[in-house]
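Ligand-bound model needed. magnesium ion.
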Amino acid sequence: MACSGLLSNSFIANKCFRPRRHHKLAVPYPRSFSSSRVHLAQNLGISMSMEENGAAKQGLDVSRKKLPHVLTVAGSDSGAGAGIQADLKACAARGVYCSTVITAVTAQNTVGVQGVNIVPDEFVAQQLKSVLSDMEVDVVKTGMLPSIEIVRVLQQSLKEFPVRAVVVDPVMVSTSGDVLADPSILARFREELLMMADIVTPNLKETSTLLGGMRLETVDDMRRAAKLLHSMGPRSVLVKGGDLPESFDAVDVFFDGEEYHELHSPRVKTRNTHGTGCTLASCIAAELAKGSSMLSAVKLAKRYVETALEYSKDIILGNGAQGPFDHFLRLKHNTSTGGTFSGNELFLYAVTDSGMNEKWERPMEVAVKEAIEGGATIIQLREKDAETRKFIETAKACLKICHPYKVPLLINDRIDVALASDADGVHVGQSDMPARVARILLGPDKVIGVSCKTVEQAHQAWLDGADYIGCGGVYPTSTKANNSTVGLDGLKTVCLASKLPVVAIGGINASNAITVLGIGPPNLKGVAVVSTVFARSSVVGETRKLHSMLTEAVLKAN
Ligand SMILES: Cc1ncc(COP(=O)(O)OP(=O)(O)O)c(N)n1
Ligand SMILES: Cc1nc(C(=O)O)sc1CCOP(=O)(O)O
Ligand SMILES: [Mg+2]
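Prediction:
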């Protein structure tokens, strides 16, 4: 439809800048949506001057960026594992704005659904109008639509305010088996909602219900079902086979009217699956809003859900059979510092050396355990020659040893290994990855230490978001080649200038530890050692000796 310059600005704002949806267009779903009004206007053949003119009159900045926007029309889950709450989290996790129209409020937890209060259809209509008339929604995702009236209201709203795509998750029964939609809406679903859907995402139970009780036992059955559902109107169908018996992996069948795709993913063994359907559909909607093609959106959404399930498989929330999962992949972040690193952890800092452990035929895990039993308060894995895969495995094994003692485990240099093993943090030097970049990659809760020999470096470490600095070499060392020394004076100067806690390193042993800690500045929190702890046969014995010296130094200072 061409827009004439005679049309009013409000018409332009409401209609012209939304690409109209035409049902059953033969063209594939656009790969990339233009996101700015200007670009859309160009796509639709509207002259820039008219756009600018209209925008100027409305006080809009035509160059502003538009957020991809999903509107979810669904029920609230008080337990926040599914429904509106899952949709909000999924969209946020995928970087997409999500507005909400609530169709029902459920009293729900991990055990089941204790109550449902349906929102009056006029009020659902009012919510829809409020959002759709104002906020440039890209994609509508539907979840729990508990009454015929609400389905009708939605259908009318979408006629009045067309959006780029509609994702229909035909929620009828919750994962705990509770019925969430009046069975009489089935017919309406089939006649109206499926017609409007760009994709419908039923699980096996919902597929069977939509198809009048069809038995679904094999992937071939799912293919047949996808075709039948497709004939009811949606542009694409994703039949989710998570509940398919006797399959090693989870198989979903995608059908777009022409091609079938079997999408396989490993089955994640977990009770925390509440909300997977809502999340998958929201994530598809979010990816469509960002500009993905339908098949890419489905693949991205599946991968995201798999990752979130895997990440959350051990978390415990609620007493019921089905727990929620963590959309932000963070609950499992099991830092022994709990994101509150104080610096006191630096008291006796044991830094490993594979050469020294090999000499004594000591597996890394044994060395780490002995150091902790001797009194080490923080461990750094400094494995210069380790192969990446082996390093990750070792780090994971050492984390299992450290965490029961609440001792943080950091990784030397290798941010990738820290990320892959979910270690508590990293230590980087002046020629390693900048702490500023490591902070972005690791997030706010991981511990980052930086080696500093000067006041300027210490200041920069603080600016970059580090948690502590390592200052040395205090004395000459044979552990690190060509390491320049700063001496006790250099250490003191850096400590006095540093806003961060400091650990001294380089040539420190049980004989000089009292002198080092005795230099005074309160932010000098401890000593880091390699050979003193790991160069001899008894790690536990050497660590204990050092620990008692450090304790003596503290007692002396007080
Ligand atoms: C606690 C602590 N302080 C300093 C260092 C040295 O780090 P860096 O300068 O990056 O040298 P390498 O250890 O990577 O050789 C450290 N590892 N730990
Ligand atoms: C890894 C390292 N960094 C240093 C620095 O000065 O930044 S000194 C050093 C080696 C410390 O080993 P030892 O305790 O055996 O002397
Ligand atoms: Mg380094």
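Residues 351, 451, 470, 472-473, 477, 479-480, 483, 505-508, 529-532 surround 3NM (ligand 2) (CB under 6 Å).
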